[in-house]
Amino acid sequence: MEKEDQVAILKERFNQNMARHPATTWAQVEEALLNDEKLFSSILKMEETQGEPDVVRFAHLPGELYYVDCSSESPKGRRSICYDQAALNKRKKNKPTSSAEQIASELGIELLTEVDYVFLQTIAHFDEKTSSWLHTPKEIRELGGAIFGDKRFGRTFIYHNAADSYYSVRGFRGKILIENK
Fold first, then answer.
1. Beta-sheet strands, E only, within the chain
2. What Pfam families does the database record attribute to this sequence (predicted)?
């Protein structure tokens, strides 16, 4: 797909979902996309793995603007994975092909934090049939666990699981910084 075609898709998604990025203009975003090849490459990879990236202005990160996976369910191209490399190494049987942290690194993005995820759920409904691994605090990870979230019964839930677990409906959502003012 040509760069202009991809930019057109991102612009259309931006215009259709203005509540995700109040007080943001397409001109700001387009300038960053056209002038930062690393950013654009990561966004393309998010799109290729069916993340449907869109611009999000998080209330808890004032002055920062991100591209975030906004597909209604956890991105299809990033499911059936455990949390990180240590968890992947721990699995002896039925190993998944990769981990959330490894794929995020390959895409050049970060996993959403618990705070990011809860905020994202206030602007739309995500993961009503799937779930998403979230950046896990060190103290939880050291105990062998990892956290994930989903939305059920109109509420956002954050849970824990063994980091080496994986399910066909669990993937992860990521973000990448566009600008910091």
1. 53-56, 64-69, 110-111, 131-134, 145-152, 155-162, 170-172, 174-180
2. DUF4256
Could you report the per-residue pLDDT of 54-112, keeping only the tens digit for each?
999 999 998 899 999 999 999 999 999 999 999 999 998 899 999 999 999 999 999 99
CA angle centred on 47, ends 9 and 133, rounded to 5°: 140
Residue 160: both structure tokens together: 């824990």
Burial class of 92 by CB neighbour count within 10 A (0 to 12, 13 to 18, 19+): exposed
CA distance 162 to 21: 34
Which pTM was predicted? 0.95
Give, rounded to a whole angstrom, the gap between the first and last alpha carbons of the chain: 31
CA–CA distance from 17 to each of 22, 67, 129 (Å)? 10, 13, 21
Helix (H, G, I), strand (E, B) or coil at 148: strand
| 38: CB partners within 8 A, 6+ apart | 108
Question: What does the block give as tokens for 133?
Answer: 């691994």
Domain with 45 in it: 3-180
Secondary structure tally for the chain: helices H, strands E: 7, 8
Please list, in sequence order, all residues whose beta carbon lies within 8 angstroms of the beta carbon of residue 171, skipping any fewer than 6 positions away: 74, 75, 76, 78, 79, 80, 81, 100, 130, 131, 132, 133
Please count the structural domains in the chain: 1
